[in-house]
């Protein structure tokens, strides 16, 4: 009996590490695009709009894969979905070595986005299967996103390191593909936890589209859209906003983006600890208010901008994993893949449309990025208002309590 318990615990750890490393691996590529775009612009003599397709293309593919293929994790199982997505991503990433045109790279990035959409929804559904309660689900999700944050630091660093040594940026994808092969082997041999299935309705795209009408799915998806629009404002447009700064905090300005990513990653591990001890609705309200303050006060002067916008990463850290976790936890485990796909669709839409709208607004006022950040501040205000109302009225409390009791092994406080 003790041997079986130890084997189960070991397997549980393997499943968790598989999930952690999957998120870290794909973040290495998606969050390195900002460093890659300037190189591609020089290499192919492209405009910012054309080069920006390297960001918007894969984000659109992730969104479409989430909404149209998210049901696969519920229909064919977590294991098959993860292996299919990882295999497509690995093969596609190795193909970067055989071509050297902008169109070729763009197509590969779009395919990689679709692959990420497939294995990410499988991984998100898997988190629910291995969680003991809705609270444990949220804590685990924050750790998972913490590893995503680590990948977001490693990716740009590797690209910068390669460029310094006159190595082409596309070798980043070879590194990611090799790590992906290791993950495929782990995914193939590891024992997966039991997945609850429902025979009440067919699992297909139609069911996913109907689920969007559910107020919990739509509400958490819109929260994800607003949050990602606020977050993307930092890593897409902050470098433009603070370009040319020569005040007292030049050092911070020089490393503003890495500081933001480090605070976001570290804060997610801290968030996992916090959410095990405090009411998630209060944590989210305080965190979103702190983000709003950082944005509002950043308009005081340039020095405030340089300090407060990177600092907002610490308060942003806990938001998205919790939105994702609570949104998914509002549904039975048999629907986790589908609802994860819906939230992923709105997430990718926010990552694409948020910076795009900011760029449009900035161009309306003489290409001044400050006006784009005014729009981002409006997004931050709406996000705070939604969490404030959620804290006051607690619309998810009863639903989470019922699912916590029926879907998870160990009842824990919400």
What would you say this structure looks like, in words?
- The chain has helices at 2-30, 33-44, 48-51, 53-69, 72-75, 78-94, 102-130, 134-164, 171-189, 205-211, 215-241, 250-254, 256-275, 280-297, 302-316, 319-329, 336-364, 369-393, 397-407.
- Helices cover 80% and strands 0% of the residues.
- By secondary structure, it is mainly alpha-helical.
- The two termini are 31 Å apart.
- The model has no long low-confidence stretch (mean pLDDT 90).
Count of extended strands = 0
Report helical residue fraction: over 70%
Multimerization state: single chain
CATH superfamily, called what?
Answer: MFS general substrate transporter like domains
Summary of the model, kept short:
The chain is mostly helical. It has helices at 2-30, 33-44, 48-51, 53-69, 72-75, 78-94, 102-130, 134-164, 171-189, 205-211, 215-241, 250-254, 256-275, 280-297, 302-316, 319-329, 336-364, 369-393, 397-407.
List key phrases describing it.
single chain; 414 residues; mainly alpha; Growth Hormone, Chain: A; 19 helices; globular
What topology does this entry show?
Blueprint: H1 2-30, H2 33-44, H3 48-51, H4 53-69, H5 72-75, H6 78-94, H7 102-130, H8 134-164, H9 171-189, H10 205-211, H11 215-241, H12 250-254, H13 256-275, H14 280-297, H15 302-316, H16 319-329, H17 336-364, H18 369-393, H19 397-407
């Amino acid at each position: 009996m003790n041997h079986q318990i130890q084997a189960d615990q070991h397997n549980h750890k393997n499943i968790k590490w598989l999930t952690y490393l999957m998120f870290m691996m794909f973040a290495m590529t998606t969050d390195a695009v900002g460093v890659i775009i300037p190189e591609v612009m020089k290499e192919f003599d492209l405009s910012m709009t054309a080069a920006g397709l390297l960001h918007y293309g894969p984000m659109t593919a992730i969104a479409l894969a989430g909404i149209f293929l998210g049901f696969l994790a519920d229909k064919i199982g977590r294991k098959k979905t993860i292996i299919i997505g990882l295999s497509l991503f690995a093969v596609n990433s190795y193909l970067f070595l055989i071509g050297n045109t902008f169109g070729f790279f763009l197509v590969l990035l779009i395919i990689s986005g679709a692959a990420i959409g497939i294995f990410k929804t499988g991984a998100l559904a898997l988190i629910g299967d291995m969680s003991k309660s809705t609270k444990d689900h949220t804590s685990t999700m924050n750790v998972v996103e913490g590893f995503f944050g680590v990948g977001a630091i490693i990716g740009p660093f590797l690209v910068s390191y390669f460029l310094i040594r006159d190595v082409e940026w596309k070798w980043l994808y070879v590194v990611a593909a090799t790590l992906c092969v290791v993950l495929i082997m782990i995914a193939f041999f590891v024992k997966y936890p039991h997945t609850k299935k429902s025979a009440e309705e067919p699992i297909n795209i139609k069911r996913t589209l109907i689920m969007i009408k559910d107020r919990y799915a739509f509400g958490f998806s819109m929260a994800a859209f607003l949050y990602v629009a606020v977050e993307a404002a930092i890593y897409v447009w902050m470098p433009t906003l603070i370009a040319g700064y020569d005040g007292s905090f030049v050092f911070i300005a020089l490393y503003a983006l890495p500081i933001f990513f480090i605070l976001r990653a570290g804060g997610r591990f801290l968030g996992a600890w916090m959410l095990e001890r405090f009411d998630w609705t209060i944590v989210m309200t305080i965190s979103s208010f702190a983000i709003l303050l950082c944005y509002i006060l950043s308009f005081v002067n340039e020095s405030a901008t340089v300090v407060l916008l990177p600092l907002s990463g610490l308060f942003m850290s806990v938001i998205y994993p919790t939105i994702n976790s609570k949104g998914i936890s509002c549904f039975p485990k048999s629907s986790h893949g589908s609802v994860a796909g819906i939230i992923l669709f709105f997430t990718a839409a926010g990552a694409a449309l948020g910076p795009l709208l900011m760029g449009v607004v900035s161009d309306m006022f003489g290409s001044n990025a400050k006006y784009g950040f005014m729009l981002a501040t409006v997004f931050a205000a709406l996000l705070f208002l939604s969490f404030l109302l959620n804290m006051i009225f607690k619309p998810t409390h009863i639903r989470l309590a019922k699912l916590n009791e029926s879907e998870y092994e160990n009842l824990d406080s919400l």
